[in-house]
Amino acid sequence: MNVQHKIAVVQGLNLFYREAGNRNNPTILLLHGFPSSSHMYRNLILQLADDYHIIAPDYPGFGNSDQPSMTEFDYTFEGIAELVNAFVEQLNLKQYSLYVHDYGAPVGYRLAVMHPERVQAIITQNGNAYEIGLESAWAPIQAFWQNPDDAAVRQGVVDLLSIAITKLQYVNGTRNPQSISPDNWNNDQIHLDREGNQEIQLALYYDYQNNLKQYPTWHEYFREYQPPVLVAWGKNDMFFGVKGALAYMDDLEDVDVHLLNTGHFPLEEDLDISVSLIRDFLKRRV
After folding, report:
1. How far is Cα 19 from Cα 214, in angstroms, rounded to an integer?
2. Whole-prediction pTM
3. Which residues have a Cβ under 8 Å from the Cβ of 54 and sit 6 or more positions away?
4. pLDDT score recorded for residue 276
5. Which of these is catalytic: 32, 39, 101, 264?
């Protein structure tokens, strides 16, 4: 199955996206996490495209999409969600299953609240929606929320954008770090090191605190609309812990929780398990 690499001009911005599969099949909207892009889904897309229509965009400032300046685009999760919503409408995606990872969760759950009628199912792979899921690795970012102008605090957050931390996000918690391709962190770092990107990432780090304020709204959405949800979580994630995975059971009736013995990017080490879980889940729910 061939993957198409496309550009959609949305609100004046070039948004890169990967598309595969027949549009007559059920759609899966893949929303990527930090510090990656739709590149993180390159293998998953090939595994699912025979039976599903797959769409995987890059956010502004990530991957192969435009990187408008801070004055040209609202680098908040609200701003990204509104742009992705416009992208979805431009592609005329009437219904879809949401697949969210990391940053994809605050983007995707905003989409779900905006248009609950579109969401057929949700797959969350280390896509957090509960404060209890935030691990101690968030400490530098939480300090940044409290003291954004403190030079030492700011430097602590800037350090999170280094190649060492980018690599760590891929290999930490994995069973076999040597099985994880360095293409992942090297590709991500090229984009993180672009001129002007550091300020974009700091803006999103700072804005992440507003996602926590949205958690009650997302929980209310879960309780009211009860979308079927698959939780396929890398249980050794340094940022989003197991408690965040289990918390979905507090608000959802139709929820499958699977804890995988890997780290932040389960698709790198547990692609086959993930594909099997997704196929089984969607076959029964969509």
Report:
1. 30
2. 0.97
3. 18, 19, 20, 21, 27, 28, 30, 41, 45, 48
4. 98
5. 264
Distance CA 131, CA 216 (A): 10
Read off the pLDDT of residues 139-190 as tens digits, 9 standing for 90 and up: 999 999 999 999 999 999 999 999 999 999 999 999 999 999 999 999 999 9
Known active-site residue 101:
no
Nearest to 264 by CA among 29, 38, 101: 101
Q: What angle do CA 216, 274, 52 make, to 5 degrees?
A: 90
In sequence order, which residues have a C-beta less than 8 Å from that of residue 117 and are 6 or more positions away? Answer: 95
List of the chain residues with pLDDT < 50: none
Can you read off the two tokens belonging to residue 255? 């929820």
pLDDT for the residue numbered 270 = 98
Check residue 126 and give left, alpha or beta (phi > 0: left; psi -120 to 50: alpha). left
Which residue reads 């939480």 in tokens? 142
How is residue 77 written in tokens?
A: 């999760």
For the CA atoms of the chain, what is the radius of gyration?
A: 18
Closest by Cα among 183, 175, 184, 188 to 269: 175
